[in-house]
Amino acid sequence: MKEYIHGGDIYRHPDVLDYSANINPLGTPPGVIRAAKDSMERVCHYPDACQEKLKQALAEYEQVPVEWLICGNGAAELIFALVQAVKPKRALVLAPTFAEYAQALEAVGCEVNREILKKEDGFTLQDRILDRLQKEDLQMVFLCNPNNPTGILMDPKLLRKVVTLCEKRQIYLVVDECFLDFVPEPEVHTLKGELKGKKYLFLLKAFTKRYAMAGLRLGYGITSGETLMTQIEAQLQPWNVSTPAQEAGTAALRETAYVEKARTLIFQERQFLREGLMKMGYPVLDSQANYLFFEGEPDLYEKLLQEGVMIRDCSNYPGLWKGCYRIAVKLHTENEQLLEKIRKVRR
Predict the structure, then answer these.
(1) What's the topology of domain 17-27+256-346?
(2) d(CA 233, CA 32)
(3) How far, in Å, CA of 340 to CA of 87, rounded?
(4) Which of 23, 289, 330, 344 allows an S-S link to 151, with CB 3.0 to 4.6 Å?
(5) Residue 297 three-state SS
(6) The pLDDT of residue 9
(7) What is the CA radius of gyration of the chain?
(8) Residue 74: what pLDDT?
(9) Mean pLDDT, 10 residues at a time, over the chain (347 residues)?
């Protein structure tokens, strides 16, 4: 049986209060659910392989040309398609970071090198990565901003130096911005403004977290690199995004008030959770996403699971250890329950 290495495994753990998956706490917008339901009347037909309506809506939302957009069955599909297209021999990923980057790279026989983010540096990306990009024979680099599972943002100036250096050295730079919607000033941190004229820069985004659409599987990428786009498209099957996903995605992009309401809630509740954990003596990172990263007792995950609460045990991330945890930011009543359960298992 396939080993499940991510959060959100409610199928093996039904009826838990799930803090292991970082989904919009407001749940899926009703208009999005309606759009997916209504589209079921047309599922006797193939989906639009060109994804025309969805891409037009995305182009308007992201303020980029339609030609720069590619959609996938979740951002994960695009990660694998991108790696299959380029087939790098040597790549660099962060440690810790999202597991799918290394998994996709290893699937094509790529040597995966890791840039270790150190605890004493607050798990922040340091200038030393520039030396590695300059000296090592790399074909691809994956970055996640804010990083998963730490929620730490990268210095925008350093990130732009990375972009410039990768373009100069013809290294494909993939930057995952899936959690950027939940930071206070996303416009300061996005690399969309760097895309024009860049052949080697690829941005990853998804509907999963922003609109609580994890089960529909819809992600997208943005690049101005025409050759790269053609190579990735060649790796995808023609009908990779279902009709319900396309219709739900198009409807979701109109949910601006919902997104702003979620952002306000997350900013407030993230601080509430951080203060609650710190009062109990836990070291908590200054996570800027819709989740928090902290260190606790080695058996905290198991004890909370017995109480019907599932958090993300991060010990299977390279660069981390037993006692590292990530928790989603949810509604206030749920967050109160989580803190109370933690207090209970510590008594």
Answers:
(1) Aspartate Aminotransferase, domain 1 (3.90.1150)
(2) 27
(3) 48
(4) 289
(5) coil
(6) 75
(7) 20
(8) 96
(9) 61 87 96 98 96 98 98 97 98 97 98 98 98 98 98 98 98 98 96 97 96 96 98 97 98 97 98 98 97 98 97 97 98 98 94
The yes-or-no answer to whether 17-27+256-346 and 30-252 have a common fold is no
Q: CA distances (Å), 55 to each of 67, 126, 203, 273, in order? A: 9, 36, 15, 37
- The Cα–Cα gap between 236 and 82 comes to 10
The domain locations on the chain are 17-27+256-346, 30-252
- Quote the CA–CA distance of 210 and 261 in Å, as a whole number: 12
Contact 38, 189 (CB under 8 A): no
Residue linked to tokens 């094509």: 108
Q: What per-residue confidence (pLDDT) applies to 347? A: 79
Give Cα separations from 159 to 180, 187, 206, 283 (angstroms). Answer: 14, 14, 21, 27
pLDDT for the residue numbered 4: 52
Contacts 24+ apart (CB under 8 A), 284-288: 285/122, 285/123, 285/150, 285/151, 285/152, 286/122, 286/151, 286/152, 287/146, 287/150, 287/151, 287/152, 288/146, 288/151, 288/152, 288/153, 288/182, 288/183, 288/184
| Residue 38 DSSP SS3 | helix
Amino acid 328 reads: A
The whole-angstrom separation of Cα 110 and Cα 88 is: 6
Domain 30-252: give its CATH architecture.
Answer: 3-Layer(aba) Sandwich (3.40)
* Inter-CA distances, 147 with 47, 117, 260, 287, Å: 33, 10, 22, 9
State both tokens at 9. 């495994």
